[in-house]
């Protein structure tokens, strides 16, 4: 499976492509940062993000896009820009019919380092090690994009199995309710007759 990982941001958007192999084998395909000038109008910046992401989607043809879920930050303006950039990425993926998955920062950290409270240096170190890179990806946005792709590759099989199990459980529950309803209806119709 090929995953496009995105660490959304308006000034710097980390973007990476990682291929998943058998087991937990992962291979970095490409990593970079899409930058937009802070002096540009918001609409122009979002257009530059969209153009950059669409070029990556066309070039690398991922099967899924993994985006970091935006949480409220102390700086509302930064949070809004981050959320808008994430929306542009999700839209570009949806236009191509690609599934989009959102992962929380703690999910990503836990998947890559084993701790949901890991700092950026720990995430970068583990990404470098897991992907057998000769040097650490910089800036941190690039490392975070790689970590998002790895997180999705490792968590997707578990999520899929859980979704399948939930779907089977729902089907069993539906069939069980139908049998109970049929038995109750039969009992009601049987109790209406008087034995002679």
UniProtKB/TrEMBL annotation:
It catalyses: Endonucleolytic cleavage at a junction such as a reciprocal single-stranded crossover between two homologous DNA duplexes (Holliday junction). GO terms for biological process: DNA recombination; DNA repair. Keywords: Cytoplasm, DNA damage, DNA recombination, DNA repair, DNA-binding, Endonuclease, Hydrolase, Magnesium, Metal-binding, Nuclease. The keyword DNA damage applies. Binds 2 Mg(2+) ion per subunit. Mg(2+) 2 binds at residue 68. Transmembrane segments: none annotated. The active site is at residues 7, 68, 141. It is found in: Cytoplasm. Belongs to the RuvC family. Homodimer which binds Holliday junction (HJ) DNA. The HJ becomes 2-fold symmetrical on binding to RuvC with unstacked arms; it has a different conformation from HJ DNA in complex with RuvA. In the full resolvosome a probable DNA-RuvA(4)-RuvB(12)-RuvC(2) complex forms which resolves the HJ. This is Crossover junction endodeoxyribonuclease RuvC. It comes from Actinokineospora spheciospongiae. The lineage of its organism: Bacteria, Bacillati, Actinomycetota, Actinomycetes, Pseudonocardiales.
